Automatic annotation (TrEMBL), chain A:
InterPro entries in UniProt: Ald_DH/histidinol_DH, Ald_DH_N, Aldehyde_DH_dom
Annotated source species: freshwater metagenome
Molecular function as annotated in GO: oxidoreductase activity
Gene3D superfamilies named in the record: Aldehyde Dehydrogenase, Chain A, domain 1 (3.40.605.10)
Protein name in the entry: Unannotated protein
From TrEMBL, chain B:
The name this protein goes by in its record: Unannotated protein
PANTHER family: ALDEHYDE DEHYDROGENASE-RELATED (PTHR11699)
Keywords: Oxidoreductase
Gene3D superfamilies: Aldehyde Dehydrogenase, Chain A, domain 1, Aldehyde Dehydrogenase, Chain A, domain 2
TrEMBL record, chain C:
EC nos: 4.1.2.4
Protein's UniProt keywords contain Lyase: yes
Organism: freshwater metagenome
Keyword Lyase: yes
UniProt catalytic activity: 2-deoxy-D-ribose 5-phosphate = D-glyceraldehyde 3-phosphate + acetaldehyde
Protein name per Swiss-Prot or TrEMBL: deoxyribose-phosphate aldolase
Family: Belongs to the DeoC/FbaB aldolase family. DeoC type 2 subfamily.
Pfam hit, one: DeoC
Any GO molecular function: deoxyribose-phosphate aldolase activity
Keyword annotations: Lyase, Schiff base
Amino acid sequence: MSNRIDVKKTYKLFINGAFPRTESGRTYEVKSSKGSFIANPCLASRKDLKDAVVAARAAQAGWNKATAYNKGQILYRIAEMLEGRRAQFVDEIMVVTGVTKTKADKEVTDSVDRLVWYAGWSDKISSLSGALNPVAGPYYNFTIPESMGVIAAIAPETPSLLGLIDVIAPIIVGGNTVVVLASTKAPLSAMSFAEVLATSDVPAGVVNILTGKKDEIAPWMASHMDIDGLDISGLAVKSHADIRTAGAENLKRIYSFKSADPGRILAFLENKTVWHPIGL
Amino acid sequence: MEDKLSFEYAPAPESRAVVSIKPKYGHFIGGKFVAGTKHFPTINPATEETLSAIALGSKSDVDAAVKSARKAYVTTWSKMSGKERGKYLFRIARIMQERAREFAVLETLDNGKPIRESRDVDVPLAAAHFFYHAGWADKLEFAGLGTSTKPHGVAGQIIPWNFPLLMLAWKVAPALAAGNTVVLKPAETTSLTALLFAEVCQQAELPAGVVNIVTGDGSTGALIVNHPGIDKIAFTGSTEVGKIIARAVAPTKKSITLELGGKAANIVFEDAAIDEAVEGIVNGIFFNQGHVCCAGSRLLLQENVAEEVLSKLKTRMAKIRVGDPMDKNTDLGAINSHEQLLKIRELSAAGDLEGAERWSAPCELPGKGFWFAPTLFTGVTQSHRIAREEIFGPVLSVLTFRTPQEGIDKANNTPFGLSAGIWSEKGSKVLWASQQLRAGVIWANTFNKFDPTSPFGGYKESGWGREGGRHGLSAYLKGVSHE
Amino acid sequence: MNFYGLVDGTEASLKKYLGALSGVDQVGADARAAMLATRSIKTTSKRWAIDTAITMVDLTTLEGADTPGKVKALCTKAVRPDPTDLTVPSVGAVCVYNDMVSIARTHLDLIGGQHVGVAAVSTAFPSGRASMAVKIQDTQDAIDAGASEIDMVIDRGAFLQGRYIEVFDEIVKIREICGTKAHLKVIFETGELVTYDNVRKASFLAMAAGAHFIKTSTGKVAPAATAPVVLVMLEAVRDFYSMTNVRIGVKPAGGIRNTKDAIKQLVLVNETAGPEWLTPSLFRIGASALLNDLLMQRMKMDDGYYASPQYVTID
């Protein structure tokens, strides 16, 4: 038994519910914290980004139409699936980052709990951030938050799993679809998380995950005219100015977040105000 | 009995006597009027008469204004309780109501809009904005999710010429309520009511430097946008300029809100209340000469009612009274500037060239001043320039659709997303359409309605953020989770 | 009888005809009417408007206490509203209960008021609650007594219950009785129909059934001739004209008490149906107190100072 050769996983991208290799054929090497080879994940190209945006755009209307209850259940389902595979995520976090088992365990626990927390927001955010506006006239007037569309995101380098969930969950819970670039140095949990997503009733295209280099992909995200918003929490602050400048071309909503709170969900929601006369 | 045609409306001109316009104005900095250096004329677009000379804000003017705003922020305004700040806003609201006639006349003289509109819409709404936001000043902790109770500091605000006083109110009232101080630049062609507002601030005994007004053109605006002493930029104007500002602010820590252009679809379904829809179409595109970012400039008619609606619309358009803005019977006033008139003419000519059919209401246009007759184009398709670009004038592009989904798809087929109109007597269809439309303000069975309690602002390239209501207030408070 | 070929007399065809009407948005209609109320008219036009309004008045007395003396006085006023100024035109008609028709006609003829019509309120005015036989008899009596105009009420109960065909048939029958002798005005009692949708529906129903005029109210129910109700009716006659090339008249009645109200009505007519309707043959105002105010405003325009009610007659 001890002579058995492991069957190792090939880490690929996650686009439109499938696991394609990068169209560029490029990979990069991920090493353990001790310097040994772990995997050759895809080095995604701008064309992979383009494909992922097409998938995200196609999926957006359907995902947006899902009831808040349904979306909440699907996010909760992701948490269930993640919980079931805790051991794998703990191992991957430990081997790549070199943190202790206790620390890795806590990150996975927090990740599961964070997903559950965001799941619960799906059918509450509208009632807390919407409004019935008492206009001075015979009109019924209300404001409701609505999905913004396709959001791109740069996940932080660490924590690689919790950080990823903190960008994905608030974006999708409001009905957006997302194209996210995972942690470059620690992409394993992101690609394993894609497997969780694939078994969690998340419709194809709602979440798309790329692995690769931030400096290569982020400018293409910023300039892409079919991306409505951009979370640059995972991007070095020195790059923010250029990204924001490029994003101005289609007035993308670009944010960088410091914490997990409802504001993170609201940032990628648009407020729509509807007027209707009240009369016979 | 005499001839029926003798039933005519009287020119019922509003008296100019209520306003006194100085021959020359300076800036309002630190609670005082300070002399400008260079000046440019501001004219009445209805007569081309020069009304006054407006100061062109220079770097030192903007510096002085920002310095004064900062000082007021640090020493006074940020230390004052919300309750007391609110009282100043209430005072301002009341004084604006007291001097409403003066504001309305001045606005009409400087802008060219009908006195009926400045009197019944712009000025009362401006006062209402102050009254509404006054009440927020001591309730910021209840302003909702995602915002703190902390103001940004000094806000630089640049406003357009289409609703000069109202846009000032949209900007200044929430900024002050939230505890910011402001440097405001009115539009080049319409500074007079902002300068009158400065007098109101004095009468309200607003602490010096809380509101600073620097007049000027785009160069003055750029000085404000790029000023390092400013924490928050709020701009209303074209998408083109909005993008320039967004780029300018990108490398900085400045917070920013933008309220930009639109090309709103006004969708008339087969089951609409046709007569009210026609009124709504007219109000949608001819209100304020069509100088409205949220104007219903693309009329989408369901094909089975298109003919009826068009015929009624033309009849109705023929009744629009174009002329002296000071006449209380006037519906459509003067185009704000010669430059804007040229732009409207250019885009309309493009409509002719692209094969759309032009129809203008038969009306006599005054000899002097800048005028454009109420006009519609039929046979417009999605790929025509007049269906895509903002004309910002009294020109309506008419398109048709066959099914509700096609109507929605055409409506959403634009990089803009400010507003949209829906006309249908069927409740579920109205709600369906308002859900489908990608725009920040949906007017269902009405159009061009505004209220301080109602958030206004666009999706996509129509801007960032909202103005009005709790959502608008949050633009003047720091976010808790993001910068 | 089948007017215009719009309805063939069957319930199905009437339902189809009424079902094709677009709805009316109350808030939008109110806003339009309010906006038109801000129009001001030229002084020269105002003089013309006052005189025109006088010719449009259906000078009305509809009281249980009416006596021949009261009606005769009303007729005198109708012919010569201002005995001191003979340039003041006569009103359009006097409007009285059935039993006063012959008194009114006789007296008008006696004092040179042949050109002033006599309108009789008919079909169990104001409630309309009587059998068809009685309504027919009521109308016949009025015509026999010399009425040139019949102001009938519709059965609002039937209308609100959706028995449109009965309402339609009643109007058709009364119009048959009117024949060529009398013009038919159909009163909806809009205060009881309540919604503008109903006002529009009733307007089209009555026009297709052969009404010469559509009239808002009996004067016994408030609200009566509000500006938006009149707006909706004017839009109906305008649309009906575009369908049939026939101009139907409109008569607001009830609540129009002063010159300002009357001029606002004329503005509504001018902007909505069009100036073609600015004639007593297509627009009437049912009123009693209005006439004196019109006269006082007329005096003010002539004299340049405000008039006193002491100088206009109370009849």
